[in-house]
Amino acid sequence: MINNTDISDRIVAIFHKMLSNETKNVLLHEPAFKGNEWTYIKECLDTGWVSSVGAYVDRFEKDLAQFTGSPYAVAVVNGTAALHISLLIAGVQPNDEVMIPSLTFVATANAVTYCGATPHLIDVTHDTLGVDAIKLGDYLKEIAIIQQDGHYYNKYTGRRLSAVVPMHTFGHPVDLEGLLEVCNRYHLALVEDAAESLGSYYKGKHTGTYGHIAALSFNGNKIITTGGGGAILTANEEWAKRAKHLTTTAKIPHRWLFIHDETAYNYRLPNLNAALGCAQLEQLPLFLEQKRKLANLYAQEFKQIPELTFVKEPTDTSSNYWLNTLKLNTPDSSIRDEILKKTNDHGFMTRPTWTPMHKLEIYKSSPQMDLSVTEEIASSVINIPSSPALLNSATKEE
After folding, report:
1. Nearest of 149, 124, 182, 186 to residue 373 by alpha carbon
2. CA-to-CA separations, 65 to 71, 84, 167, 215, 274, in angstroms, rounded
3. pLDDT range class, residue 393, cuts 50, 70, 90
4. N- to C-terminal Cα separation, the chain
5. Phi/psi zone of residue 52: left (φ > 0), alpha (ψ -120 to 50 degrees), beta?
6. Phi and psi angles of residue 128, each rounded to the nearest 5 degrees, phi first
7. pLDDT in tens, 109-166
């Protein structure tokens, strides 16, 4: 029988050994501002270009496109907005069903709902923590039926199946080739929720560039931050133009007239936030290096606890290790909760996964496949401190 107190104590001992928390709690993931952040933001303040028009917005989009290898990047106010617009551009319509993992942050489901569509909850794999392409393909074989319009419909609900939204959980890339094959077979748009995976690669190609369109997030807890912010990635020039138009209130360019040709959204990223993002992007290679070294140190240390597995990047991928993750080999929510309590009591911030969507009152009636793996992961996963700057304390560097 597993002694949960013993596991908790051993984890806390490793944290005390690796991480200094003498003056403050060790947070889950905090931003690092060691570059040109102050300089670029001061320039915005000095020039007065602080809102949604300015040189830093253009530069941030260009730098993002260059880093990810995406032909186009459109900066927006947050990751949820990026996903909302991505779904609209990918053709999601009211009364459609969109396949999303139940193991995700609620914003993924919310963005689907903003489109008037219904989230259809699907299962994940133990190795990627993301959508299970094989299980999804088998499931669609059972429920999907093609109609005369060339689209596939859920034969049980009558709703059109329009898109799949895989989420790269904690920065670990999902099986994108497998999902592309499923999406092509069933005429579904592949919309990547890459909110957590800036700097992650699948078979040498950056996440967010395999699907038809993708969303990034730059919230304060992400690998780089703009304070609040997001971006849309796409290789389709017309889609990129459409994204820019929809996120800037559908305003027709004119020197003085306000002409808007459709109902749209004020999702523009302010120049002030973009300036922060430009400075952060300059440091991203360093952050990635630090986080990989920290992950390797964690992996070595946690070998001492055989009841746990440190979650490593899947085969053929390079993960940004946004949130380092421990997983109980035998799922047990009571042991998980004891670990969460003990580590947080000692000043080391740890967190479980999000509550799966099928467990939330607002989405529990959504159509769903068997979600047994999702439930196992939700009762066994613990996120541990992952800030890039933790490398220094973990290696006892000054």
Report:
1. 124
2. 6, 20, 20, 13, 14
3. low
4. 42
5. alpha
6. -105, -20
7. 999 999 999 999 999 999 999 999 999 999 999 999 999 999 999 999 999 999 999 9
So what's the pLDDT on residue 199? 98
Among residues 155, 151, 222, 164, the alpha carbon closest in space to that of 193 is found at 164
* DSSP of 13-59: HHHHHH---SSS-B-SS-----SSHHHHHHHHHHHT--SS-SHHHHH
**Burial degree of 172 (CB within 10 A; 0-12, 13-18, 19+):** buried
Q: Which residue in this structure is represented by tokens 């003056």?
A: 23
DSSP annotation string for 304-318: G-TTEEE--PPTTEE
**How far from chain centre, in Å, is Cα 398?**
32
pLDDT band (50, 70, 90) for residue 203: very high
Dist. CA 69–CA 353, nearest whole Å: 30
Among 49-53, 136-140, 309-313, 360-364, whose mean pLDDT is lowest?
A: 49-53
What is the rounded CA–CA span in Å between residue 190 and residue 48? Answer: 40
Q: pLDDT at residue 397 above 90?
A: no
Q: Which residues make Cβ contacts (< 8 Å) with residue 108, sequence separation at least 6?
A: 83, 100, 101, 119, 165, 167, 193, 357
Is residue 3 pLDDT above 60, yes or no?
A: no
